Amino acid sequence: MAGGLVAAVGVGTGLWASSGSGGGDGTPAGSAASQQAAAATSAGTSAAATAASPTPSRSYALSTTPRTIPAVRSHTPARGPGWRPATAKRVVVSDSRLVDEGRLIAGELGMTYAGEKDDVRAGDLRLALNDDEGANPESYTMTVQGGRVTVSGPSDTGVFYGTRTLKQEVHSGGTAPEGVVRDQPAKPQRGFMLDIARKNFSAAWIEDRVRELGDLKFNQLGLHFSDDQAFRIESDTHPEIVAKEHLTKAQVKSIVALAAQRHITVVPEIDSPGHLGAVLAAHPELRLRNASGSATRGAIDISKDASANLLDDLLNEYAGLFPGAYWHLGGDEYQALTVSSPAASYPQLAAAATARYGAGAGVADLATGWLNDRADTARAHDRTMRVWNDGFFRGTSVKPASDLVVAYWTGKEIGARKPVEYLSAGRKVLNYNDEYLYYVLGEPQTFVYPTGQRIYEQWTPRVLRGTTPVAAKYDAQILGGSLAVWCDLANSQTQAQVAAGIRMPLRATSQKLWDAGTPDLTWTQFKALAGRLG
Predict the structure, then answer these.
(1) CA 185 → CA 90, 116, 205, 210, 214, distances in Å?
(2) DSSP letters of 266-278?
(3) Pick from 15, 174, 264, 313: CA 20 to 30 A from residue 362's CA?
């Protein structure tokens, strides 16, 4: 160009834009400030030549797909400077239902939250609800164009996920790339389950995990708060069962509120009729005893009306504390059904089964009826219930309620049933595959700590048991999955060690629940990306 003016060519506006993409003061390439700086470099040219020169324009490389966890499903590239946040720039919303999302992202990016506004200003981040009827409510579109960003979706949840993508894009001073992101999850239920019964986790630690889960687009946090070792949440109906170290109801409400802000549902679990040792320590009269009078660890006597009354008291009490749509009933490892002859070992259960369900009914029928009754209690609070797969029994005259979702974790139980048995019967299933997704403190029995790499490279939601996926025709029945932390040997790791140990498994699980296909990044690249995102 005449006068020695150099045409500046913008670099790719990917997530990790270098300082070369803008002015030395961090201004985005193509901004007014950077254009002024470019003009200043030509000050040595003659006044006449400068006056005769046309106004310099800037060209840009085609933008690259942003790198996020989980990865976005679609990005349409464009040419342009991209977008960076700044204190003077506004976050505005088009609907009062997006106030929480607007305030949160404004605080995270150091911007000014301006509320509901119709006017348009340079540098705006606008959050909007669209009228895309029938769209996945967790979907969103993010458009970076003309120095502004618009995140829109059919619900506030979708818009929230768009802000998570944007937050990652601009992390550590990066730039949101020009173009359009269209994104939605493959699976509707994406969870993390925490055993707080065997190990006491602080409320602050749990809240930190909620924030982490939200940024990774998880939408469920399971709390297993009752087991043989302890009952960990304050109770008004049965204070005698609560451990000294526990969460108060006020603390739980704060966790639930924070989770709701991050569009996460907290799913409570009071496991029964097994794993009730802590409850039974305060109610020894309800312990299940065998024919010789010996108490069976953790098992409640389901032939007694008082046992059902106690559990229903708890289910009804905590329904008010956990307002989400889901409830985990447990149902696993009832010791009365792990012996060779349940009827001979526990004649009171056999007698109760025939009295209630008629001749030919057995202990498994009574256990199935127990879960159905607890499901009735939870259903009255408009909950969808899930039960561990070994709480379902083959060949019973009493059938499990049709709306019970199978939480499939193992194929090691007596009379183990393969996942296809549930799927072919029309059951919906959640994936807790203990081969990949079980983080068991102390690694007892045959458990090993899951690695993010194994999950990332080998697991998909269709891999429900072992390492072999079920047929693709069942994919729609698999609602999602969950990484689970079990604290069998509670002192094996500190809270900090658990957080560090699950860091990459969480990220890998997030990726595979959002998009079950083969990831674009290698594991080495994915791990490096996680390091940059923090």
Answers:
(1) 28, 28, 27, 19, 14
(2) EEEEEEESSS-HH
(3) 313
Q: Which residues contact 342 (CB under 8 A, 6 or more apart)?
A: 336, 349, 350, 362, 363, 364
Asked whether the CA dihedral 25, 31, 32, 36 is positive or negative, the reply is positive
**Phi and psi of 222, rounded to 5°?**
-90, 135
* pTM (two decimals): 0.88
> Using CA atoms, how far apart are residues 403 and 385, in angstroms rounded to an integer?
7
Cβ atoms 333, 488 nearer than 8 A: no
Residue whose token pair is 């949440």:
233
319: left (phi over 0), alpha (psi -120 to 50) or beta: alpha
Burial class (CB in 10 A: 0-12, 13-18, 19+), 523: middle
DSSP state of 302: T
Alpha helices per DSSP H over 270-346: 277-281, 305-319, 342-345
DSSP 94-158: SSGGGHHHHHHHHHHHT-EEEEE-----TT-EEEEE---TTS-TT-EEEEEETTEEEEEESSHHH
- CA 241 – CA 341 distance, rounded (Å): 31
Integer Cα distance of 461 and 187 in angstroms? 8
Residue 420 has a CB neighbour count (10 Å cut-off) of: 13
Q: Is 222 exposed, middle or buried (0-12, 13-18, 19+ CB in 10 A)?
A: buried
Query: Comparing C-alpha atoms, which of 348, 220, 237 is closest to residue 288?
Result: 348
Question: pLDDT (tens digit, 9 = 90+) per residue, 395-436?
Answer: 899 999 999 999 999 988 877 889 999 999 999 999 999 999
Say if residues 318 and 270 touch (Cβ distance below 8 Å).
yes
Distance, in Å, from the CA atom of 94 to the CA atom of 256, rounded to the nearest integer, reads 26
Look at residues 378, 383, 388 and name the one whose alpha carbon lies nearest to residue 312.
Answer: 378
DSSP 405-427: EEEE--S-STT---HHHHHHTT-
How many other C-beta atoms lie within 10 A of the C-beta of residue 362? Answer: 21
Distance, CA of 363 to CA of 36 (rounded, Å)? 82
Measured in degrees and rounded to the nearest 5, phi and psi for residue 39 equal -65, -35
Residue 128 bridge partners (DSSP): 152
> In this structure, are residues 426 and 473 in contact, taking their beta carbons and an 8 Å threshold?
no
Residue carrying structure tokens 């002015």? 23
Say if residue 7's pLDDT is above 60.
no
Paired sense of beta strands 74-77 and 140-145, if any:
unpaired
**How far apart are alpha carbons 502 and 436 in whole angstroms?**
12
> Sign of dihedral through CA atoms 421, 423, 427, 428?
positive
Cα gap 508→33, rounded to integer Å: 40
What are 506-521's pLDDT values in tens digits? Answer: 999 999 999 999 999 9
Residue 34 clears pLDDT 70, i.e. is over it: no
